[in-house]
MipA/OmpV family protein (Paracoccus aestuariivivens), 249 residues
Amino acid sequence: MRHLFAIALLTATSFALPASAQWINNISEASFDVGAGISYGPSYFGSDDAELGPWGTMRNLTLGVEDGTEKQGFSLIPSFGYIGDRDAKDHDELEGMDDIDWTGEVGLRLNYVAGDATSYGAVRVGVGGHDGLVGEIGTKYRFIVNDKLTLWTTAELQLGDDSFTGTYFGVTEDEAAASPNFDAYDPSGGIYAANIALEARYSLTPKTSILGKVTFGRLLNDAGDSPIVQERNQPEINLGIARRLNFRF
């Protein structure tokens, strides 16, 4: 699975770079939303309990060209992710399981913009709680309701290699021996979840907005079959304040 992710990344880069070379000299502006707020969702992957936590976001990248229009076609940009820690002592059902530290993820994302629709694929490597390869493929569509309100709908598949799924959905022999609840379980990598989401941005000023997102996720395949998973359905709500940052070249 790790090799498949690496091949996907190299393939995406080989297609994107020639396309990028044709327009990169014409880019005059890059802008994106940076926000912070609160998240209400599962306590950990597969939990049936929800909790409040912090939410940080960097999204809605727009590349502008010299004539002032939004960049269409392919673009290759950085991709970042974050997964919070999992402490077994905070959840009775996880007795005997190892703790998992928080994880930062860094990688690349390939976008294809056609009008208000954006298709994308991303690959990232984890540093911290897991050291696997993760990513997603999906499509989002933008609805500009008026000069203050913009909506996005998203459909997405999430992927992880064996190392990732083993960390968050697996049970080692030692953990099984220490746990009264779980037998050993070694999940394979692949598609581990599917998400649909509705996101909204309401402009308070030209640069500052209220940003909200409602996501319905469902765990699939070996991840969904994990004995750790109490609930396959994984809804999440995010709400915060975002600032639009612009960089001109």
Observations:
- The chain has four helices and ten strands.
